[in-house]
Amino acid sequence: MSVAEGSRDRVEERLVALEEDYSGFPVNQTTLAVPREAYERTGERCRRGIVDAYVQLYNERDDVLLVENDGEWVVPHGEPRASERVVAGTERAIRDRTGVDCDLTDLARVTILGIRDESDSERPPVYRLIAVFTAETDGEGPAVTDGAAAVDEEAAADGGDDSAVEREAPPDGVRWHPTLPDSAVPTH
To answer: Confidence class of residue 2 from pLDDT cuts 50, 70 and 90?
Structure first.
């Protein structure tokens, strides 16, 4: 079986699994023609996993977690491994990337993405599944907004100390933001 055929079957399997975990989410389908090198990279990526998961992750203050990607601030992205269920793999990938534990609460949308080789229309498309989730923190995690030092007054109160306690800063390129920028979530 070719990578293209295998990717189509694996996308279908993952979509069925997501339907078991979530109901009523929209499913879109689109095709992109890309240069041969990008097509080849997509085929290689399909061997590791088939899902690109984007997560709108909110903390208890309704701030959204963003990561820096090529100079822009976007929602965290993860790729569940081929051996993982989508939900557990996405939560692991987000924790690995950001240091924040989360619980996926909803599946906003799914796109079946067909990638074609723009230089050879005879090559079959390679498929990927793009999933956009919403999530909540599973604990406090990093708590610095816009790079400023944050304090945990609740932790200070629990400890009986009147002063605020500084919390752990997130990794470089990770921050909490009070609003979700329009460009932070992929459109496909």
So the answer is: confident
